[in-house]
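Many introductory courses stop at the sequence. We go one step further.
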Amino acid sequence: MGAGVRAGGGLAALDQPAVDDSWDYTSVRAILAIALTALGEGVEDSAPVQTGHLLWHLDRGPTIVRRLAAVLLGEELAQATDIDPATVDMDNPVMSTWVWLTRTWPADGPWVG
């Protein structure tokens, strides 16, 4: 997942200011990291995931992101929301990222859209 976070951070920085406490940057980086990590699971010789391949998947929306998460976490957790952190391995960076992404966010949060 570390490579996914680094690559996701670089891609997110193309659109968002690279500020770690920015909700927009953090959420975009997290979604990209989950997708890149899942897509990279089948890549041999540590070849990077091609940007076009990543964008093809992401362009299909949240359902595809959940399918990619299922590669890493299993179908049940990939479909869950508001996962209780006490019930999963929060030391696993994929899991902790997914728990953060899939929690219910208040409508009046610090984000736009």
